Description:
The longest helix is centred in the C-terminal third of the chain and has 29 residues, at about 155-185. The two termini are about 30 Å apart. Helices cover about 55% and strands about 10% of the residues. Strands 2-3-1-4-5 form a five-stranded parallel sheet, sandwiched between helices. Helix 1 packs parallel to helix 9 (about 155-185) and helix 5 (about 90-100) packs antiparallel against helix 7 (about 120-125). The chain has nine helices and five strands; from the N terminus they run βαβααβαβααααβα. By secondary structure, the protein is of the alpha/beta class.
Amino acid sequence: MRIVILGNAGSGKSTLARSLARTQGMPWLDLDTLVWEPDRVAVQRPDELVFSDLAQFCRESDDWVIDGCYGDLVEAVLPNRPLLIFLEPGEAQCIANCRARPWEPHKYRSKKEQDEHLEHLLGWVRSYYDLGGSMSLAGHRAVFAAYAGPKRLVTQLAELEVMQSAWLAAAASARARVEARVTLAR
């Protein structure tokens, strides 16, 4: 299973991706970790390195989950025919999620450092709805509309719980079938 999750900051992308990676045993890539230099706040890596590392990640496994707000990077993985999930729960929910965000140690050295960037993040969340470009609502809608592969627009976070429950049930069923085959083979 290949999944790419697109949406505004605070839309629930990383929460969903982390859960899928854990429950489905898939590698997970948060696109922020490719775009930004580690331990160097607000320093972007060169585009050619970002796209190269993204392509390598996609080649390394048959199954994966990727999340981010970078429409151009999401477009780059769409030839792999993943399920594209576009999370758009609205500005108020995104802001609430950002305020409740746990520490992200893969992005910030400390919770304090993360909290110092909160107002900037909230400004970004608000501007998402009015700006253009690949990291805006308009850009995300364009990526979603143009994709001919499997896709799902999620506007209510409760829909995510239903999706996750279905995936968990499918994974449990697959594990049971494998265990039954192993038992029969003995």
